[in-house]
Write a structure and sequence with these properties.
Blueprint lengths: L4 E6 L3 H12 L4 E7 L3 H11 L3 E3 L2 H5 L6 E4 L6 H10 L3 E5 L6 H14 L3 E4 L7 H10 L6 E11 L17 H17 L5 E8 L7 E10 L3 E8 L1 E5 L2 E5 L3 E4 L12 E5 L2 E5 L6 H15 L7 H20 L3 E2 L1
Parallel strand pairs: 1-2, 1-4, 2-3, 4-5, 5-6, 7-10
Antiparallel strand pairs: 7-11, 7-12, 8-9, 8-16, 9-10, 12-13, 13-14, 14-15
Length: 331
């Protein structure tokens, strides 16, 4: 019988119910054994809906369950630090929703707590576990489009009418840079295998939405005269493209972060013309769970380190500082 990593879920957020829990349940090395809510009835209802054996009426009770190996934390951003550290102290491995924290300093504190406890702390950027990102990285490294000249990307959607959305609470870590701008930033760092040197961001801070950034546009500078230009928003049409521009070609990914059914293919344009690159179907949430499980159960290296998450928060800090101060921030 295949060894399984036993998961508990801290919260009944829609991302957990819609995507992460089914992904873990469909994966090879994982099983979801418990879910917790501050409302016992809500936990029981969700557990019944998703066929999870145990429901807890508090997060503390779930962390006290010695049969649970790992926890997934889909709580609002301002609670990531507290519950990640409490989970680490309880000896649980942790998959925490992005962004990992509200600041680089918070993320570093979480990383230290996990290291002290001897547990894994991973950030839930599921998109990068999809096999197409291996293909993209191979194309870049093999110079299929020549020398990289720049990356353009966006992640926008419109939920502006829902004024009760936690993404619109400034003190809870709301705003589009935290919520979706983190994706293009993360992708550019992965694909270029570099850390930024400077950032410049302009943002629309909406008085109707607790003055969080409802739209932002940015320039992220890397060495070698390469940059990421991006925009992100929660009050704009739905889109999440990625474009990688090279001296000899172009890569276009129509749905870079949020995949529709069978939407993983992308396009390569070179001197030979434009062609569609087919990528095998995969559930990125299942892939994410299995890579974490392999690290825990079989001692494999964690594909994306906790330090990577801390470095991503460093860039997000700079983006928010730039947007508020309307100036270029050197990292």
């Amino acid at each position: 019988m295949t060894q399984k990593l036993r998961w508990g879920i801290l919260g009944c957020a829609s991302i957990a119910k819609r995507s992460v829990i089914p992904g873990l349940q469909q994966s090879r090395f994982n099983e979801v054994v418990a879910i917790a809510s501050r409302d016992q009835a809500k936990a029981e209802e969700t557990a019944e809906e998703l066929k999870i054996p145990t429901a807890y009426g508090s997060y503390e009770s779930l962390l006290e369950d010695s049969s649970i190996d790992a926890v997934y934390i889909p709580l609002p951003n301002h609670l990531h630090k507290e519950w990640s550290i409490r989970a680490a102290k309880a000896g649980k491995h942790i998959l925490c929703e992005k962004p990992l924290a509200l600041t680089e300093a918070e993320a570093a504190e979480m990383a230290d707590a996990a290291a002290t406890a001897g547990v894994i702390l991973a950030e839930a950027f599921m998109y990068r576990y999809h096999p197409r990102y291996d293909v993209l990285k191979e194309m870049i490294d093999s110079r299929a489009i020549g020398e990289i000249r720049g990356i353009r990307s966006a992640f926008t959607f419109n939920s502006s009418a829902n004024h009760g959305n936690v993404r619109f609470r400034k003190d809870w870590g709301g705003g589009s840079i935290y919520d979706v701008g983190c994706y293009p930033i993360n992708a550019a760092r992965i694909l270029l295998d570099k850390e930024p040197e400077a950032v410049t961001v302009q943002a629309f801070f909406s008085p109707e939405h607790d003055h969080v950034d409802m739209m932002a546009s940015g320039l992220i500078e890397f060495d070698g005269n390469v940059s990421l230009t991006f925009d992100c928003g929660m009050w704009a049409a739905n889109r999440n493209p990625l474009e990688i521009v090279g001296t000899d070609g172009l890569i276009e990914v129509p749905y870079a972060y949020s995949l529709p059914e069978n939407g993983a293919n992308f396009f390569l344009t070179t001197g030979d013309g434009r062609k569609e690159i087919e990528v095998p179907h995969a559930n990125a949430y299942s892939e994410q769970g299995d890579r974490i499980a392999e690290a825990v159960l079989y001692g494999k290296s964690l594909r994306y380190s906790t330090e990577d998450a801390v470095r991503n928060m460093r860039v997000i800090d700079a983006c928010l500082q730039s947007a508020h101060e309307r100036t270029r921030i050197v990292l």
